[in-house]
Write a structure and sequence with these properties.
Layout: H1 2-23, H2 25-42, H3 46-64, H4 71-87, E1 91-97, E2 103-108, H5 113-117, H6 124-135, H7 142-162, H8 168-173, H9 175-199, H10 201-213
Antiparallel strand pairs: 1-2
Length: about 220
């Protein structure tokens, strides 16, 4: 089965990727910093992105952070599991989300760490907004930028609250592995989002090239330009 082969390959790559992710952490941080600076100083529309981030952050801090009702975040979490289960050629057979008692996604196939960790670095709501905005040619509309900003803030707060020692997803992937790979993965996810907002799909290519050519890249995969 293809899902079995993918799970086997991911298992082989698991610790090399963890070490690479740790080595690339400074480069990911610098990439995000440069993208944030470009947006703040080169694009006046970016103020709407900042408004979205700060707006959701304030709402979350004042009204949401102490709520025990977690249906929406749980649903988004389980949908992300579903997406990566499908991407690794597993078959999703069930999805459940509750108000207070978490959720569960079930699938037929072979488990892998990518399915377990996906919700903790992949901003599903943000990606959906980017796809819809690009399809509808509204990606640079102020209200879309504000929604993207709010979705990034939502991803940050939900990841923060859901990342704890009792989280079964982290236990399944391994606490040490999760700690090594998630910081770089989250920094890179936000940097790619900002780059796409600025340059479209070429922003993704730029981010990958940046990491490859970065003087802080521990592997020096390609010589610097």
């Amino acid at each position: 089965m293809l899902s079995q082969r993918i799970a086997f390959a991911l298992n082989i790559l698991k610790w090399p990727l963890a070490l690479l992710s740790l080595g690339l952490l400074p480069s990911c941080f610098l990439l995000l910093y440069e993208e944030a600076v470009r947006h703040l100083f080169d694009h006046h529309e970016s103020r709407y992105l900042v408004i979205g981030v700060l707006g959701y952050g304030i709402v979350w801090y004042c009204f949401i952070r102490n709520l025990k009702i977690t249906f929406l975040s749980t649903l988004e979490n389980e949908i992300t599991h579903c997406i990566f289960a499908c991407l690794t050629f597993n078959r999703v057979v069930g999805l459940r989300a509750t108000l207070r008692q978490g959720g569960l996604m079930t699938y037929v196939g072979h488990p892998n760490w990518l399915i377990s960790l996906a919700p903790y670095f992949f901003p599903t709501c943000t990606v959906l907004l980017l796809l819809l905005g690009n399809f509808m040619h509204t990606l640079h509309y102020p209200w879309v930028l504000a929604l993207v900003g709010a979705s990034l803030a939502y991803h940050a707060t939900s990841t923060w609250t859901e990342t704890h020692h009792a989280q079964t997803d982290l236990k399944d992937a391994g606490y040490l592995f999760s700690a090594l790979i998630l910081p770089s993965a989250n920094l890179l996810a936000v940097a790619i989002t900002l780059a796409i907002l600025r340059d479209g799909s070429s922003g993704l290519i730029y981010c990958l090239q940046y990491l490859l050519h970065s003087p802080l890249n521990p592997l020096k995969l390609l010589p610097p330009r």
